[in-house]
Amino acid sequence: MADETETGKGRATPSRKEAEAARKKQMKTPMTRKEQRKRDMAVREELRVKQREALKNGDERYLPAREQGPVRRFCRDYVDRRYNFAEYLLPFLIVLLILFAVAGSISDSATTILTAAVYPFVIFGTILDEIVLVRGLKKQLRARFGDDAVKGSIVYSVLRSTQLRRFRLPKVQVKRGETLGTNYR
Q: Residues of the chain whose pLDDT is less than 50?
């Protein structure tokens, strides 16, 4: 004969009367303000942990409210699939700082020339790239989601484009140059 294993929860199901009494008892337990605050803090911390993990994994269920929805996911993918001038701005500025230190030790005119040559390039390059990003994104958002989707999404996308790719949260889900599908509904 086959070995039978016991299934179930290992205890009798409480009657409705017992279950309601237990629930009412739990609800009636008086809590001090200190206990209530402790419980509320634990609930908030649990939510924060879930959101942090969702930002690392891309789990849509637990993302913070500003990151949720198909429009925001499309914006993230749109920004992440392209090379953005602004994402290289911070490393470039660090190199520039070192160059200024070296040029400053050589002469003041070297610093002036370096400033006159580099700053316009950095500023106009960033502005031009962001204009290209915004125009393309607006066109795609209107085509896929309608005019209402544009509001708020542009600023979100521009801010994301300024972050280094490896430090973006929620984590990048697409490769560079990848075409965006139609699965955003």
A: none
